[in-house]
Amino acid sequence: MPYVKIEITREGVTREQKAALIKGVTELITETLNKDPKLTHVVIQEIDLDDWGWAGDQVSELRKKGITADKK
């Protein structure tokens, strides 16, 4: 029974994007590991920006400075 947990910051990920992640990860597990998709669990957990840190700062503070994953 594969269990995959995806943690992301809470920054407006849409329902459709989450559905695509769940479907894509399930398909990858099925194709790569030959696992039954009915036994594959995918959990997406959104973390508040104050509760996620990087390089010693809260992500909420980094965002105020204009720092994002693609602009480090």
Descriptors:
two-stranded antiparallel ribbon; 2 helices; Macrophage Migration Inhibitory Factor; alpha+beta; 72 residues; 35% helix; single chain
Please characterize this protein's 3D structure.
This protein has a two-stranded parallel sheet with strand order 1-2. A two-stranded antiparallel sheet has the order 3-4. Helix 1 links the parallel strand 1 and strand 2. With 72 residues, it is α+β, with helices and mostly antiparallel strands. The model has no long low-confidence stretch (mean pLDDT 95). It is built from two helices and four strands; from the N terminus they run βαβββα. The longest helix has 19 residues, at 15-33. It has helices spanning 15-33, 59-64; strands at 3-9, 41-47, 53-54, 57-58. It has one domain (3-64): Macrophage Migration Inhibitory Factor (2-Layer Sandwich), CATH 3.30.429.10. Helices cover 35% and strands 25% of the residues.
Overview in brief:
This protein is α+β, with helices and mostly antiparallel strands. It is 35% helix and 25% strand.
Number of domains: 1
Radius of gyration: 15 Å
Mean pLDDT: 95
CATH second-level architecture: 2-Layer Sandwich
What is the count of helical runs?
Answer: 2
Largest sheet entry: 2 strands, parallel
Strand line-up in the sheet with most strands: 1-2
Q: Helices and strands: which structural class? A: alpha+beta
What is the percent of helical residues?
25-40%
* Distance separating the two termini: 37 Å
